[in-house]
């Protein structure tokens, strides 16, 4: 019988090491919000607005709708067996060992790539205050700080993420409150622009760039949602998961409406979409345009902490994924060792070393937005693979364990149908990525990762067989 107070896992026959359930409800709720408000919203929304205009609001709503069902599928699977520590566990159990291997390592790589994008974003935000500061040195300092924060205890990670997410929430709510006041007062910026809701439809209509512009907005918009599944990697360290996980997942639609739809409507009402600069954060630029440089510094701090929050989550999740893979024999055994504080320190250090690749990228390609677009496209493709594996696992679960589904306290609505609709949507997004030159290169390069994984899995299987 499983002891639900903590998940215990063997590392060697002589010793038992376990992840501790130190994350409380408030940690999980804020980690969930932090995951739903990614760097793509703050850093990438400038580009998505310039590509799609006001129709970008519809793009975010469509993606959010699809991902809510992915999260519901994940929630039902995790709660069907509390021995599942993350989605790589149920993928291995339901689909096969290869699925656990591919999902675990791909999710690890997803967060390393996303972490690089976050580090790129952090260095860009740091330029706002320190234009003379070397970007690659700033990125190295950032990675070092993240390593130190995560080496202490999981509770320190939870607290750090709680306050990072709180800063994001307060900032966006402030924007949503101040924006309508500026619209009602018909606030005029130094450039002569008057704040008005009519900006949403007067400058070329809702689809000013046509249907092609609307489709072009999906790439970075998908990246804005990466991390939404982060609550799935906290399952083994969550107190009372039966109550906490459903609560966190059910709140996702409301958060998407508030943090994406309302925030973008306010931005495009105060500053017309065609005035938004593609390679800068519109959250910062909004306050610069209305002549509030002090507020711009505050918002720059907010978007910097947002990127730090995402990178912090990435470092946390990669170390837990490596811990799980090592226990299954799919990663070096040293990654299954925990420190005295019950933290997988070896996995943390390895992931942070990989994050330093971001410093090299910034050094080789000085154009921050070019690096950001390349890295976010790779990340979005890999995350869609992980989300699809979650849906495939759910379909197998429904077929193999109908009794478990019947007694589930958290059933996914329209389960099988929505799984197929979501996977068709992900395939559609891949087609869109192939149509644009700046995203096509990343799409062509991504299969190399799966080739490396396939070769590694074959070698590992032959080694185990021998």
TrEMBL record:
Q: Please state where this protein is localized.
A: Cell inner membrane
Tell me which UniProt keywords the record has, alphabetically: Amino-acid transport, Cell membrane, Membrane, Transmembrane, Transmembrane helix, Transport
Record-linked InterPro entries? AA-permease/SLC12A_dom, Amino_acid_permease_CS
What are the Amino acid permease/ SLC12A domain coordinates in residue numbering?
Answer: 27-463
Report the transmembrane regions from the record.
28-45, 51-71, 108-130, 136-157, 169-187, 207-231, 252-271, 283-304, 343-365, 371-397, 417-435, 441-460
How does the record say this protein sits in the membrane?
A: Multi-pass membrane protein
Q: Name one GO biological process term.
A: transmembrane transport
Question: Which GO CC terms are listed, alphabetically?
Answer: plasma membrane
Q: Which NCBIfam families does this one have?
A: PRK11049.1 (NF008272)
Q: Which PANTHER family match?
A: D-SERINE_D-ALANINE_GLYCINE TRANSPORTER, GABA PERMEASE
Put simply, this protein is called D-serine/D-alanine/glycine transporter
Per the UniProt entry, what species is this protein from, by scientific name? Answer: Serratia symbiotica SCt-VLC
Q: Which gene encodes it?
A: cycA
């Amino acid at each position: 019988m499983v002891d639900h107070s903590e998940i215990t896992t063997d590392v060697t026959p002589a010793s038992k090491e376990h992840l501790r359930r130190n994350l409380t409800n408030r940690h999980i709720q804020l980690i969930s919000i932090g995951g739903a408000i990614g760097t793509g919203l703050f850093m990438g929304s400038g580009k998505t607005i310039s590509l799609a205009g006001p129709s970008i609001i519809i793009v975010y709503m469509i993606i959010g709708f699809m991902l809510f069902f992915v999260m519901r599928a994940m929630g039902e699977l995790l709660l069907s067996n509390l021995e599942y520590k993350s989605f790589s566990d149920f993928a291995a159990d339901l689909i096969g060992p290869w699925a656990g291997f591919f999902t675990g390592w791909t999710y690890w790589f997803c967060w390393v790539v996303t972490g690089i994008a976050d580090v790129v974003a952090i260095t860009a935000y740091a330029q706002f205050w320190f234009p003379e500061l070397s970007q690659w040195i700033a990125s190295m300092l950032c990675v070092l700080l993240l390593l130190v924060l995560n080496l202490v205890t999981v509770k320190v990670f939870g607290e750090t993420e709680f306050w990072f997410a709180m800063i994001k929430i307060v900032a966006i709510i402030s924007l949503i409150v101040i924006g309508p006041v500026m619209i009602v007062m018909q606030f005029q910026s130094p450039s002569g622009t008057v704040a008005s809701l009519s900006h949403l439809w007067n400058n070329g209509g809702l689809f000013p760039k046509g249907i092609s512009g609307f489709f072009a907005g999906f790439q970075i918009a998908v990246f804005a949602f990466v991390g939404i599944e982060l609550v799935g990697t906290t399952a083994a360290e969550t107190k009372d998961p039966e109550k906490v996980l459903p609560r966190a997942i059910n709140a996702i639609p409301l958060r998407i409406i508030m943090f994406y739809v309302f925030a973008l409507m306010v931005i495009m009402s105060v500053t017309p979409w065609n005035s938004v600069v593609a390679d800068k954060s519109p959250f910062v630029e909004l306050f610069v345009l209305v002549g509030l440089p002090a507020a711009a510094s505050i918002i720059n701090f907010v978007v910097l902490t947002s990127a730090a929050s995402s990178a912090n989550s990435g470092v946390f999740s990669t170390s837990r994924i490596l811990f799980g893979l090592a226990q299954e024999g799919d990663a070096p055994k040293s990654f299954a060792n925990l420190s005295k504080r019950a933290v997988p320190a070896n996995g943390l250090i390895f992931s942070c070393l990989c994050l330093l690749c971001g410093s090299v990228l910034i050094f080789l390609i000085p154009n921050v937005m070019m690096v950001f677009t390349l890295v976010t496209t790779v990340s979005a493709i890999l995350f869609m693979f992980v989300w699809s594996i979650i849906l495939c696992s759910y379909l197998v679960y429904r077929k193999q364990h109908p009794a478990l589904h019947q007694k589930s306290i958290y059933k996914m609505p329209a389960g099988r149908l929505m799984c197929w609709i979501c996977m068709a949507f992900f395939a559609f997004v891949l087609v869109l990525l192939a149509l644009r030159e700046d995203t096509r290169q990343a799409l062509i390069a991504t299969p190399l990762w799966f080739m490396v994984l396939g070769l590694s899995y074959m070698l590992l299987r032959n080694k185990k067989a021998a």
